[in-house]
Amino acid sequence: MTPLSRITPATLDVLESLVSASGPTWGLVVIKHSGRPAGSVYPILERLERSGWVTSEWDDASDRPGPRRRLYELTADGASAARQALRSRPALGGVAGATA
Predict the structure, then answer these.
(1) How far apart are CA 100 and CA 94, in angstroms?
(2) CA–CA distance, 41 with 35 (Å, rounded to integer)
(3) For helices 38-50 and 9-20, what crossing angle results, to 10°?
(4) Interior CA angle at 4 toward 29 and 32, to 5°?
(5) CA geometry: angle 36, 59, 23, nearest 5 deg
(6) CATH (one of 1.20.1600.10, 1.10.10.10, 3.30.70.2730, 1.20.210.10) for 9-87
(7) Where are the chain's structural domains?
(8) What is the pTM of this model?
(9) How many angstroms separate the Cα of 38 from the Cα of each of 6, 18, 45?
(10) What digits encode the pLDDT tens for the residues 17-55?
(11) What is the rounded CA–CA span in Å between residue 75 and residue 95?
């Protein structure tokens, strides 16, 4: 697995979606869960796969109408790295040391 050179907020949103999935999940579910557009999610998924964080395969369910779905799943090392990246995510909505 190759470390990512940068982890953007959009990448963190995609990682969070994949970590929270109970198994392989298809791209549209990641899009809906992350709130990010397809034009951002799919390139991130491709980058994660090239880096070894994610594996993907085509769903061969022939009983479902429509186009085939591509299923994505974190690798064991990718899941560990994703959880670490999410723990390191800066808190939103405040300045360090500020009180409400």
Answers:
(1) 9
(2) 9
(3) 80
(4) 15
(5) 65
(6) 1.10.10.10
(7) 9-87
(8) 0.86
(9) 20, 15, 10
(10) 999 999 999 999 999 999 999 999 999 999 999 999 999
(11) 34
